[in-house]
Amino acid sequence: MQRVPAHKGMLCHLIKHARPDLVKTIEETQEVETAVVGLGRQGTRHAGLMREFGTTVTAGVAAGRSGQRVHETIPVYDSMTECIGEHPNIAAVSIWRHFTSARDATLEVIEAGVPLVMLITEGIPLRDVRDILVAARKHKTVLFGGNTPGCIFPPEGIKVGMLPDVFYPEEVEHGKAGPHGVTIISRSGAILYHMSDALASVGIAQNAVLGIGGDGANGSTFQDIAPVAMDYENTDLVVIAGEIGGSKEELLAEDILANPDKYPKPMVALISGANAPEGKTMGHAGAIVAPGQVRGTYKSKKEALESAGVTVVNSQYDLIDAVQDKLAGKTYFDVGRYYEKMRTTWEEPPKKAGWGTLITKIAPNEILLSGYPIQDVCARGNLLETAHLLLKLELPSKKVLAEHEKSAIAASKIPAPPITRFEGEDISATLAKSFLMDETLQGMTESGKDGPVNKTIYSLGRFARYLAHILGNEDAMDAPYDKEDFTSIIYRAVTGEKKVDSKRAKIIETIIATCVDHGATPPSAQSTLLAATVRPSYQMGIAAGVGAITDVHGGAGAEAATFFRKCIEVAESQNKELADATVIVLNEYMKAGKRVGGLGHRIHTTDPRRTPLWKLIDDSGLGGKCVAISKLVTDIFERVRGMSLPINVDGVIGAIVADLGLHPDLAKALFVYGRVVGLSAHFFEEVASQPQMRRINFGDAVYKGKEERSLPT
Amino acid sequence: MRLYEYEAKKVFGATGLTIPTQYGVIQSPDDLDALDLTFPVMMKSMVLIGGRGKAGGIKKAKDLAEAKKITADMLKLVIKDYPVETLLVEELADEAGACYVGITTHPASFNVIMMVSAKGGVDIEGVALETPEAILKIEIPGNELELPDNIANEFTDFLVKGLGNDAVKPAILDAVKKLYATYQEYDCKTAEINPLIITTDNQAVAADAKVVIDDNAIYRQGGLFELLGLKESRHDVSELTSDEQRARDAGFLYVDLLPEDFEGDPDKLYVGLVPGGAGYGIFSIDETANVGDRFFDGKVVPVNFMDSGGGPPVEGVAEMFHVLMDKKLVDLIVTSRFGGISSCDIFIRGTVKALRDRHEKGQRMLPIVGRMVGTDLPSARAYLEKALVETPEALKNLDIVIGNQKIMADVIKDGIAKGFKVKAQGAAVAAK
Q1: Which residue in B216, B237, B378 is closest to A348 by CB distance?
Q2: Res. A283 pLDDT band, cuts 50 70 90
């Protein structure tokens, strides 16, 4: 439904009373920014429900969780002070703290100057409530609660608090909301729903439903809010929902009698408790405050309000009659359409569980790194830039990229830990060992805004050093060289060649950058994510993922390289065409029951990563027979086996590694090196945005990051 | 939580107010033998309600024989439904004057409000009505932990003037300040001394004490509990019924609207209520009675108040139904879940669990009618639909309207019609 603009709604009207300066911002941005204070189970859950309903939930506040996110994208701050510093336009806050800590949290929100505060917390000690009220008066805060269910503004499609989405606004034409209606003000949450429900059943809309709170002592009272509601031009009538106990209704009646001008519109009061047993008697001291008056009973409230000219009812049927009568039969929407909309709510299928990741979107034949197609990112062939993108979800500026390069180069200069590769040990295991044994990473911060990206960049420098150490290339790496960029460092570390061939260097860095990530479901990412749920050190989390890269997962490149070499051997020794030799080798593999690595993919038929790699190698003129076979092998395989298993990125990498004359094992090493980036991104995302010890259903991961976008040129 | 007078005085004593010597708290005339008494003594019945003096619950005793007789008589008293079970025996202060000092929270502004009067020891409400000028009331809007000096002085001057005795000034000032500090430190809702006795040597002694502790703050009043030797907070209202106790043990609020031994009228329908939230808990009682009056000749009687609290677990929801189904009087259960902070899903799981458990054990089953709307409705609906297929027999009398296609009053109306039908069928079967 098309909503009423934010600056014309009741919410903005309420904010105007406390902070007129914010109205202009709301008009300009067409948004009322809100925050959620207290991110326990309920606060977190309702932050999500509010946002789903349409509320702009700008931020969350939870001590000790600055830098994290809830619901994937809502940033969390340690304190309201920090939050308001980053988001000065926050106009409404809901507070979900436990009653033992609600006082301090609320005082902070009030003192930060937030004009509208919904204090959801129930049962706050009276002395604490008084402190809150002292502050609210001083700062002219509009405070609802404690024990408020919050407020909902159906015409604007905004709610602050926990009211469920069952309210229907005026419909000025089909599908277009209007601002008129009755305003409901209630002490109790549940009664409020039932009143709203009753009125909606006869076509009477609510332009706002406001819970002032069920606790004995609380912020705004009926006589504070009812006049403001009546002052809103689109309110036709105000419904008050009161109940036995306390004297809130009697005080309203007194105010109506004393200041009739403040109440120019009709009012109906529903008071519940007519049939309740005699409540607790009030103490002496209370009776002296208001000598000679009985307060708190159904009778006292009904009589007081009726003497002030308010119609008092005690049932849904009478409420409907009284409001219809006062509005002279006016309706605000078609009841049939209201029920139709409600039907979609109650017939809605249960939502599929899902959790979000903002890093990489994986769809058939599509990989987006924070919105950018991977083939475009990889074509730039810059590992550090790609790492920054995955960690920060945006590309770095030139300046930042230069700093990254400096940091990575410095990290690559420090000697590797004294790790030896055991006979037959998987190179991923050796790399994991090195990472865990590396003292230089100890004590390097991973928190704060740039902690994660800085530690990842530094680690990439370290991994270059480990590779050089493990592969015996440290001499080459440390040989004096005139051009000290990270590309050449990687090249020398990986190949052991002292002289850098810039074409070959670019190909190698591009291969590494191509391997950075494939979403949350590859086993290495799963291992890192599972580890991250218990908040280990970054090194431990990454080592878990690196260790999960084996011949089964991530080893296909090396297998493919071996396969292609074998094909060439056969072609040369038996003097065959490459295609024929490939058929022979394929048949041998079949007979021996061996799998051909690098063919087929569980998601992609046309792996988006392979084309740019082929183009790169073709353009460089360095491609040879293996790359040639890599382009033929899919068709040949189909002819031999009758199955379509398109070549994947591992296969292409294997072919390139083979043609560059590098050891097949290096295909695996490059894959691990690149994947450290993705594992780092997933590790830090898990820590920042998910609860500890959560159970991860990997199949439920949903990409919630940036939509597809083009790289800046 | 209301404190007994002897407890309130212990609190006052701990904060430095002067209190009469407490000889002991006794439960029988024989208990007096063990006490070291200096006669005359004050004998005061310990009940958590006012008006003890008028009811004969406060007396002086000049010797042991009289004290024993007074004890025996007082232990037979029932003051406004509160049976007297213990007596406080304490020193009788030599009184030269009496005043009133009280503190509470203002019902409109919620500020602390403090009141004093030099006309103490009498019915202070009467004073407030007849001679309001004899009472000085001041609101303390800053909620300070110590009484601001200017206000303390104003109260003291007012009392000193009223008593006509300058010599009591230091004692009064001290008492006024200490009572206020006590009120704040111990999270009181009310703290009152009436009378604050002025002794012949110009001391101010709290001869009576009334303290109500804010229930919401009890969690942080461990020191108070230790001081009074209490293990847990006390229920204020007179004794709980067995079902009220059962609900309390299970962690939800429940009140019987009819006496425990109430005999039902076979022509009437007795409706148990499992509403959502305290507010609707009260309102659903009205709605049931109203619908009964409007459509069923006034033959519908709601039997309970219930508040499930914010988000009860599945087991808690199930227990709410068990309590009512175990209650012989109840014919029908009306339930409503308007899920805000609570979840329709957990509610329906609890409901189904209760019915399945009872069906399996062959326990009494009652028809349940109701409605659920709001948070988690889709998953709740899916669960209910599956449950109805899995165990149709256990759930055959469960009618839950999904969504707000009908307002709750209509759900109650249709449910009551069904309840009468089921009751008539049951009666017919029993007659055979």
Answers
A1: B378
A2: very low
